[in-house]
Write a structure and sequence with these properties.
- Pfam families: Chloroa_b-bind.
- It comes from Quercus lobata (Valley oak).
- The model has no long low-confidence stretch (mean pLDDT 75).
- A hairpin with a 5-residue loop joins strand 1 and strand 2.
- By secondary structure, the chain is mainly alpha-helical.
- It has a domain of 96 residues.
C-alpha cells in the first residue's frame, strides 16, 4: 500500500517540483518519448478490424468440421478434479451401489450398514476396481464418452443418473441411520 501511494504521488505530481528551496527536479516518470505518443487526437473514434489471410479463409471453408476435440490421454489429466473420469466413475459406482443396496435390502431385510459389515467391503472393492478400469480404458485410447452417446442414452443422461444415484445412496444411508433400521 505504501508503494502504491508513493507511485500515485510521483505520477500525479507536475513535471517539475521543488525538492528544497534551492533546487528543482524533473519528474522522470512523466517524460514520455515522442515515439510512444499516438498521432490520433485524444477523443477520436477508432475502429479496429481484423482481416484473415485469404489462404486461411479458404482452408477453413474447404476442410470438414471436426467431430469431437481430441481429449488428453494423460493419466493425471483424466483423473484431475475437472477431468472426464472422476464424476463418471463415482456415478457408475453409485448407480450399481444404490440398486444392489435396495435389492439386498428387499431380499434379506438388511440395511446398508449391515450389508457393509457382513462382507460387503470385498464386493465394494472388487466392483470399484473393475468399474474404474472399465471406465478408464476407452479414455486412455482417446475415445470420449460424448462421441459414443446416441439417441436416448446420452452422456448427459448418464451423468444425471449418476448424480441422482449418489444422492439416493447418501439419502438411503442417512434415513436408515436416523430410523435405526431398514427403509422398507
Amino acid at each position: 500500500m505504501a508503494a502504491s501511494s508513493a507511485m500515485q504521488s510521483i505520477l500525479a505530481s507536475p513535471l517539475t517540483r521543488v525538492v528544497s528551496n534551492r533546487s528543482t527536479r524533473v519528474n522522470q516518470f512523466l517524460i514520455i518519448p515522442t515515439s510512444y505518443v499516438s498521432p490520433v487526437p485524444r477523443n477520436a473514434i477508432m475502429r479496429v478490424r481484423c482481416m484473415a489471410k485469404k489462404e486461411q479463409l479458404e482452408s477453413e471453408t474447404t476442410s470438414p468440421p471436426q467431430s469431437t476435440p481430441k481429449i488428453s490421454t494423460n493419466f493425471y489429466d483424466l483423473l484431475a478434479f475437472s477431468g472426464p473420469a472422476p464424476e463418471r466413475i463415482n456415478g457408475r459406482l453409485a448407480m450399481i451401489g444404490f440398486v444392489s443396496a435396495m435389492a439386498v435390502e428387499l431380499s434379506n431385510g438388511q440395511d446398508v450398514f449391515a450389508q457393509i459389515s457382513n462382507g460387503g467391503i470385498p464386493w465394494f472393492l472388487g466392483t470399484s476396481i473393475l468399474l474404474t478400469f472399465a471406465s478408464l480404458i476407452p479414455l486412455f485410447k482417446g475415445i470420449s464418452v460424448e462421441s459414443k452417446s446416441d439417441g436416448f442414452m446420452t452422456s448427459d443422461a448418464e451423468m444425471w443418473n449418476g448424480r441422482f444415484a449418489m444422492l439416493g445412496l447418501v439419502a438411503l444411508a442417512f434415513t436408515e441411520y436416523v430410523k435405526g433400521g431398514t427403509l422398507i
